[in-house]
UniProtKB/TrEMBL annotation:
Matching Pfam families: Epimerase
Superkingdom in the source lineage: Bacteria
PANTHER family: BIFUNCTIONAL POLYMYXIN RESISTANCE PROTEIN ARNA, NAD(P)-BINDING DOMAIN-CONTAINING PROTEIN
Cross-referenced InterPro entries: Epimerase_deHydtase, Lipid_A_modif_metabolic_enz, NAD(P)-bd_dom_sf
SUPFAM superfamilies (UniProt xref): NAD(P)-binding Rossmann-fold domains
Record-annotated NAD-dependent epimerase/dehydratase domain positions: 5-231
This protein's name: SDR family oxidoreductase
Signal peptide positions on this chain: none
Organism in which the protein naturally occurs: Ferrimonas sediminicola
Length: 309
């Protein structure tokens, strides 16, 4: 059944893949986005009769509230994404990452549905295998704000989706993401300096991240009021293993450095059994994602604007 869907931050990396899928299903889609990365990512769908795009700041209640009121489903993607960007803009990060979802949750009626884009960066340092029962212990402002945001979503029965690190090509490219970053750097420099290569990380293609949002819309009653790790055990790799998979397709010099650290302390194997038990799994492998990145990154400039900091 087609629905009225509001997507905050819909012109971003994940939103630009999600929106065409919603429109294909017959949903009517409203986007509110500050257009930090321009309108380019939505140009191919902008003429669709069921799409409306508002260039506005979702922190502004006068702009957000009327759109929340008319929506059946709200998908909150708007954020200052990643710890470097949050460190650079701490006040904006808090107002955006927490303030918008708080305002949405305060405004919502019980019949409305809410899906919140969250992240594995909420966990912090984890011993053993990370499940949704693992205590949340964020170590950066990004993780903290996303963890606080989850609480607002949960109190109205919303579904926080804790995405693995996303990779792959989107109409709004991001090159600050680990896999995308390595591929972009090696095709331009033929070298990559890696720190904490043995850290265990977990990944998901942007197409599958978008698919998980549709999945949550379709399984809302079963998922409502609980967080879900979104990824696939088949995509748990160490950073060094990722570099090796890239090397299999494109040779480069890998230097393992003693300096540098991930402030989110992401070094864990993640369990995806909760979402898998409902039927969700990734459809795109790391090798497939690397293959498409190797087609695109040589065509991009060595110094790119597509970084979130
Ligand atoms: N890509 C990943 O690896 C990843 C992983 C985990 C979680 N997430 C989460 O998924 C969501 C989407 O991430 P993305 O990769 O698409 O990021 P992105 O930076 O590409 O997109 C975010 C969008 O939000 C918009 N925005 C920012 N502040 C706004 C405001 N005040 N009002 C309206 N719009 C605003 C930006 O213009 C941008 O279009 C975020 O909430 C992020 O925390 C992403």
């Amino acid at each position: 059944m087609p629905q009225q869907v509001l997507v905050t931050g819909g012109a971003g990396y994940i939103g630009a893949i999600l929106l065409p899928k919603l429109l294909e299903r017959g949903d009517s889609v409203t986007v509110i986005d500050k257009l930090l990365w321009g309108i380019g990512p939505l140009l191919s769908i902008i003429g669709h009769p069921n799409l409306r795009v508002f260039h506005a700041d979702a922190r502004d209640p006068a702009r957000l509230q009327p759109l929340v009121d008319e929506a059946e489903v709200i998908i909150n993607l708007a954020a200052i994404v990643g710890y470097p960007a949050c460190q650079h803009h701490p006040t904006t990060a808090r107002e955006t990452n927490v303030g918008i979802i708080e305002a949405i949750a305060n405004r919502m009626r019980p019949s409305q549905r809410l899906i919140q884009a969250s992240t594995g960066s909420t966990y912090g340092a984890v011993e053993g295998i990370c499940t949704e029962e693992t205590p949340i212990n964020p170590l950066t402002l990004y993780g903290e704000t996303k963890a606080e945001a989850e609480q607002h979503a949960l109190r109205v029965g919303g579904i926080p989706l804790r995405f693995a690190t996303v990779f792959g090509v989107s109409p709004r490219m991001r090159l600050d993401l680990l896999v995308n970053d390595i591929v972009h750097q090696v095709v331009h420099n033929h070298t990559f300096v890696m720190y904490e290569g043995h850290a265990r990380r977990t990944f998901i293609h942007a197409v599958d991240a978008a698919a998980s949002i549709l999945f949550a819309m379709d399984h809302y009653d079963a998922m409502s009021g609980r967080p879900f790790n979104v990824g696939d055990e088949a995509l748990n790799y160490t950073k060094l293993e990722v570099a090796q998979r890239i090397k299999n397709q494109y040779d480069f010099y890998l230097h393992c450095a003693e300096f540098g650290e991930d402030l989110d302390k992401r070094d864990y194997a993640v369990s995806y059994q909760r979402i898998k038990s409902l039927g969700f799994g990734a459809s795109i492998t790391l090798d497939q994602g690397i293959d498409e990145l190797l087609k695109v990154c040589p065509l991009m400039k060595p110094f790119s604007i597509y970084r979130n900091f």
